């Protein structure tokens, strides 16, 4: 008889750490962290100018966002929101993995559905888990390998976000009361004082997270929390420098455009080179002119004429959707001065066109406040030196708090609009 009992297969999920309390701890961290990621992600789409038809896919039917003129102040606004979005998203990867580990018995429960309520919960899990894994995968790939997708990253990430949001909201509505109850079931301080030898399984639960035949613990719950927390800290150390800058930038080893700042005037991050944009030498030689459109007649200015105009100096960041940012000192002509020179005193928008031949962002639309901001420039120099070709020579746009990709390089024309 004893031989028969020993020969029976044991359950696959035998960790004594699993249970409602540990799952709820990870869930509470994700509830706060993922809410920040979602909010800052949606703000990023608004910053791209949905009212101007930029970045957000069309049509989106009922999934459209409220539109407003993205502010230019403070100048580090997009640096903050997108840095939080990418940084928090990366930092939460270990927590997402830990949460999935903690509920794996539930994911593989048999039968998978035993009631209508469980069916609803299962659907929310499919949306939640599928959505978060898709967003993490595409987000990390976009950070590591710029423009590699055979589809629009912005469109896919946008709709993927709404799939995740639907699952996230439904799951929170279903699980929040249980999570609160589980968190109250034991003291965090008591858990942190419990050694591995004294670690015991939680009481049996209705969701089947607690093992029916638990193995001996290989670590305490304190150790599990330290392991996940250490993973979060490790990711933060290797990624936060891309946004924070300074001495922390050298630690941004996981992000190809996070570091890379040197001592030369033009020695800072480049997202898209002139070669990748197919900028030919003949495009930017002495024959280059800037066309100012929208006024009574087109105005064309060479680089020498632009340098002869009143120059303005501004120290402004470039912050990109990949989460990296850099702050440099730019010199050039105010866009508002160029608008007046074109004969448009109060433009309501502007269309900036680049010499770039390949790429989705060879045109950018600027809002009125972005054109008229006192620090919005057609930059000709950076850190006291002429722009390098990779940084947009002979002229590029730099506007406070605007997504980096809209700070158009290799500008060929600006059309100031009255509508």
Automatic annotation (TrEMBL):
Membrane spanning stretches: 21-48, 84-104, 125-145, 151-174, 224-247
**Which region is the signal sequence?**
none
The UniProt entry, under Pfam families, shows:
Oxidored_molyb (PF00174)
Question: What keywords are annotated for this sequence in UniProt?
Answer: Membrane, Transmembrane, Transmembrane helix
Quote one Gene Ontology molecular function term.
oxidoreductase activity
Any idea where the Oxidoreductase molybdopterin-binding domain is?
A: 285-417
**Which InterPro entries does UniProt cross-reference here?**
Mopterin_OxRdtase_euk, OxRdtase_Mopterin-bd_dom, OxRdtase_Mopterin-bd_sf
- Any idea what this protein is called? Oxidoreductase molybdopterin-binding domain-containing protein
The species this protein was found in: Nocardia panacis
């Amino acid at each position: 008889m004893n031989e028969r009992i020993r020969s029976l297969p044991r359950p696959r999920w035998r960790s004594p750490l699993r249970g409602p309390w540990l799952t709820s701890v990870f869930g509470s961290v994700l509830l706060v962290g993922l809410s920040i990621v979602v909010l800052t992600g949606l703000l990023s789409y608004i910053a791209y100018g949905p009212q101007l038809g930029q970045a957000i896919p069309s049509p989106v039917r009922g999934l459209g966002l409220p539109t407003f003129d993205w502010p230019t102040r403070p100048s580090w606004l997009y640096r903050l929101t997108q840095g939080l979005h990418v940084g928090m998203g990366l930092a939460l990867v270990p927590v997402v993995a830990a949460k999935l580990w903690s509920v794996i018995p539930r994911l593989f429960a048999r039968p998978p559905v035993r009631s209508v309520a469980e069916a609803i919960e299962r659907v929310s899990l499919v949306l939640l888990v599928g959505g978060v894994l898709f967003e993490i995968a595409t987000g990390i790939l976009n950070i590591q390998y710029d423009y590699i997708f055979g589809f629009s990253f912005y469109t896919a990430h946008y709709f993927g976000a709404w799939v995740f949001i639907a699952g996230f909201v439904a799951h929170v509505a279903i699980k929040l009361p249980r999570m609160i109850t589980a968190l109250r079931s034991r003291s965090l301080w008591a858990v942190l004082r419990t050694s591995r030898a004294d670690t015991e399984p939680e009481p049996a639960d209705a969701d089947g997270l607690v093992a029916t035949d638990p193995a001996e613990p290989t670590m305490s719950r304190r150790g599990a929390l330290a392991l996940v927390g250490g993973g979060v800290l490790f990711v933060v150390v290797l990624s936060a420098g891309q946004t924070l800058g300074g001495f922390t930038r050298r630690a941004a080893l996981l992000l190809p455009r996070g570091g890379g700042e040197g001592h030369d005037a033009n020695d800072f991050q480049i997202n898209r080179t002139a070669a990748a944009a197919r900028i030919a030498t003949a495009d930017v030689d002495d024959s280059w002119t800037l066309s100012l459109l929208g006024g009574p007649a087109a105005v064309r200015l060479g680089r020498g004429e632009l340098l002869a105009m009143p120059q303005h100096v501004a120290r402004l960041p470039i912050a990109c959707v990949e989460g990296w940012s850099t702050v440099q000192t730019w010199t050039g002509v105010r866009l508002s001065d160029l608008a007046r020179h074109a004969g448009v005193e109060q433009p309501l928008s502007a269309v900036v066109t680049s010499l770039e031949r390949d790429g989705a962002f060879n045109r950018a639309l600027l809002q009125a406040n972005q054109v008229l901001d006192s620090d919005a420039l057609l930059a000709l120099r950076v850190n006291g030196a002429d722009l390098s070709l990779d940084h947009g020579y002979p002229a590029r746009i730099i506007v406070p708090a605007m997504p980096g990709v809209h700070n158009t390089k290799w500008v060929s024309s600006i059309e100031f609009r009255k509508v």
